[in-house]
């Protein structure tokens, strides 16, 4: 007895439950079976090229008249959704794709005689582009209604021509949620680099109402402003139980000397791990940020106080050579933005980060940086951190083995420091909607944007 797999590539077609979803699949696209979990059957797709490169784009075949939902990055930092029914409608930087076929669709079903016929059965298909070695994959459409797979390392010196498991394709008969869950299970089993949120320790803040200072103050936050906000919320009958002191508490500065004429919008960089003067009280400056932490907890009954920092320290990174921070081995690096991101967000070509560069802590020194920063904060009574600007790492992989490798090293260091200094797993991930980060998330449980 021969059992036909639900998902397969046959005769240059991607077939789901005997329906052709993609036609004209190129010969250099190869498939291998995936271990099924629950109701999901699936395959991994790979591809081969004649010449190694740091970036490849390959067609997976033609997609027409099939309803889909795509989650794609409309900006470097964040995802949004888009619906359509043609390959050309699929945006650049698509990281998740769900196809639906049902009665009335144009998908072709094959009957026992080999003739085409309609089928009323709903079938959901999940496409998950993955990371493989130093490369990260995403999907996009073109004007010929072809679904394309884009592979990038982000480093001109990190090249490959052969990929075996860069895209998972899985399907379930009628339940899209089962299809998605099963697809994630299959990918987790393959990559072994991330855990489900349900398997991670959730920090205590998820059980309480709280307040983030960003919308009230932006970078002009002060300890007096934080207390005023807590006082106002309490007086209004909505006492918070946690606060996130967002951007504005750190010691930062620009690269300009006092003699230089001021540049428009100079990018600020971290110049020390301790708080700035706005968070040093006149009565006891040495207490630093501990003063507002004690006020929040003792006077207003807060259970948790978090603070913000970028995954690179600050927006412009850590200023190279600054006194007291030499051990972090920060060096200037200029972001190399993916063509797919630029397609969706052209402004990144002239963004202040792209133009003025970033002081990148060397990956071998980043655990030391995180640990010393977090240890100082924990000693002041801080319970956790909101780690922002995470997707910037994908643009800084040159000279470090590529975007995936740099992200992996930074996230391993961050996970280790969080586990050591904030045992409640006190970390919120922010601006982190790329699969480089998502598929290397072992401890971090939350992404609020």
TrEMBL record:
Keyword Iron in annotation: no
EC numbers on record: 2.4.1.82
Keyword Lyase found: no
Keywords assigned by UniProt, alphabetized: Carbohydrate metabolism
Residue stretches spanning the membrane: none
Pfam families: Raffinose_syn
Catalytic reaction annotation: alpha-D-galactosyl-(1->3)-1D-myo-inositol + sucrose = raffinose + myo-inositol
GO terms of molecular function: galactinol-sucrose galactosyltransferase activity
Similarity comment: family membership: Belongs to the glycosyl hydrolases 36 family.
Name used for this protein in its record: galactinol--sucrose galactosyltransferase
Organism the protein comes from: Musa balbisiana (Banana)
């Amino acid at each position: 007895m021969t059992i036909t797999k639900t998902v397969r590539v046959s005769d240059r077609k991607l077939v789901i439950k005997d329906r052709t979803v993609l036609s004209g699949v190129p010969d250099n696209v190869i498939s291998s079976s995936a271990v099924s979990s629950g109701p999901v059957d699936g395959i991994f797709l790979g591809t081969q090229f004649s010449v190694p490169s740091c970036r490849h784009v390959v067609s997976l075949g033609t997609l027409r008249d099939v309803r889909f939902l795509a989650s794609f990055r409309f900006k470097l930092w964040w995802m949004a959704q888009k619906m359509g029914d043609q390959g050309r409608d699929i945006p650049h930087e698509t990281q998740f794709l769900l196809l639906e076929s049902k009665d009335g669709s144009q998908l072709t079903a094959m009957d026992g005689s080999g003739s085409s016929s309609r089928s009323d059965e709903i079938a959901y298909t999940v496409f998950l582009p993955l990371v493989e070695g130093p490369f990260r994959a995403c999907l996009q459409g073109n004007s010929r209604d072809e679904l394309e797979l884009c592979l990038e390392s982000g480093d001109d010196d990190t090249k490959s021509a052969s990929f075996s498991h860069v895209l998972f394709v899985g399907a379930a008969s009628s339940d899209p949620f089962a299809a998605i869950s099963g697809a994630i299970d299959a990918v987790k089993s393959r990559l072994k680099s991330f855990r489900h949120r349900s398997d991670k320790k959730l920090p205590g803040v998820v059980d309480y109402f709280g307040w983030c200072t960003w919308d009230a103050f932006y970078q002009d936050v002060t300890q007096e402003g934080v207390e005023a906000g807590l006082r106002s919320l309490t007086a209004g009958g909505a006492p918070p139980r946690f606060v996130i002191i967002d951007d504005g508490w750190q010691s930062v500065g620009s690269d300009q000397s006092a003699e230089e004429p001021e540049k428009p919008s100079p990018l600020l960089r971290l110049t020390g791990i301790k708080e700035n003067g706005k968070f040093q009280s006149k009565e006891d400056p040495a207490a630093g940020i501990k003063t507002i932490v004690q006020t929040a907890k003792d006077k207003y009954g807060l259970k948790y106080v978090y603070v913000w920092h970028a995954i690179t320290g600050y927006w412009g990174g850590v200023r190279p050579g600054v006194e007291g921070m030499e051990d972090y081995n920060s060096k200037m690096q200029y972001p190399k933005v993916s063509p797919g991101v630029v397609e969706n967000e052209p402004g990144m070509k002239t963004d202040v980060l792209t133009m003025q560069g970033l002081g990148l802590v060397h990956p071998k020194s980043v655990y030391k940086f995180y640990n010393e920063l977090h240890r100082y904060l924990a000693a002041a009574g801080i319970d956790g951190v909101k780690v922002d600007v995470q997707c910037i790492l994908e643009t800084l992989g040159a000279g470090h083995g590529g975007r995936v490798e740099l992200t992996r090293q930074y996230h391993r260091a961050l996970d280790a420091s969080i586990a050591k200094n904030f045992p409640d797993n006190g970390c919120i991930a922010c601006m982190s909607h790329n699969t480089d980060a998502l598929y290397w998330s072992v401890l971090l449980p939350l992404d609020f944007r």
